[in-house]
Amino acid sequence: MALNSITRSQFPPTLSTSIQAGIKHMIYDETHLAMQTSLKKIITEKINPNVNQWEKSGKYPAHYIFNQLGKLGVFAANKPADFGGMGYDFAMSIAIAEQIGSIDCGSIPMSVMVQTDMSTPALSQFGSDFLRDQFLRPSISGDLVSSIAVSEPHAGSDVSAIRTTARRSGGDLIINGSKMWITNGEQADWACVLVNTSKNDNLHKNKSLVCIPLNSRGVHRSNRLDKMGMRSSDTVQLFFDDVRVPESYIIGEEGKGFIYQMKQFNDERLVTVAVGLLPLQKCLNDTLKYAKTRQIFGKTLLDQQAVQFRLAELEAELEATRSLLYRTVLSRCQGQDVTMLTAMSKLKIGRLARKITDECLQIWGGAGYLNDNSISRAFRDFRIFSIGAGCDEVMMQIIHKNQNKRTF
Question: Options 2.70.180.10, 1.20.120.160, 1.10.340.30, 1.20.140.10; which CATH number does 259-403 get?
Answer without folding.
Answer: 1.20.140.10
